Amino acid sequence: MITAAETCDFINNVVCKPENVNSLFEFGNFGSSDISRTEILILLAAIIPVVLMFFGLRKKSVVPGRLQSVVESIFTFVKDEIALGVIGRGGEKFTPYLISVFMFILVGNLFEVTPLINFPVTSRMALPLFLSLVTYVIFLFVGIKTEGIKYFTNLLWPPGVPVALKPLVGAIELVSVLLVRPFSLAVRLFANLVAGHVMLSLLLASAYFFVVQPGVGEYIVSKAPVGLAWFTLGLAIYGFELIVSILQAYIFTLLSAVYIQTSLHPEH
Known about the structure:
The protein is 65% helix and 5% strand. It has one domain (4-57, 69-264). It has a two-stranded parallel ribbon. It has a two-stranded antiparallel sheet with strand order 3-4. The protein is mainly alpha-helical and 268 residues long. The relative contact order is 0.12. The chain has helices at 37-57, 66-87, 95-110, 126-147, 150-156, 166-211, 224-264, and strands at 4-5, 15-16, 26-30, 33-36.
């Protein structure tokens, strides 16, 4: 039986309750403040894309190496398929933002399947919410710059809609654009990464507890097949989460481009 105790007793308990839950996330002391593991990983998620883009694009060889090929492929994909493909005319102006968001989220997501880290920083709600608010500010700014005050009046009183339906459609548009968009954008990324992280942790940890008897540490042959099956399922989910990490970075970037497009080209 797995229990959590106030004090660690390795004979009767396998899982010990820490005195302070924050200690699970603390990385170390720097001066008078604690820097958490999450903060270190967020910083790495910001630095790694910069380093990759710098070394991948600084020298364009006729015969590109592996790093240059990968970085150029990502950059070209975001620029052509998302910035220009979704936003259209004027989309090139938003390529730097979209590639930055895509790379940052991608690296942050991949921390989930990185050995010795196994923690996606995007599973902390504050980060997806912050990124969604940045997108929110951008598409509002673009809408106001493009249409002026009409950006809001067109939401309240949509042109081209029958007069009888305009109050209802206007209310729906106003709520969906100004309230639902940033929240749904953040929750989509947050929920998917939290679900995957929890599922992986439970499957791989359960495999250990099925094989090793709590408190004794001896292998139990009768339970070993169950633990092996659990571990195999965990590895399968591991591969699935790798795909989810890439897909969620793409979806967040794609939806950001879609929202900007609706403000930049309201006629569409």
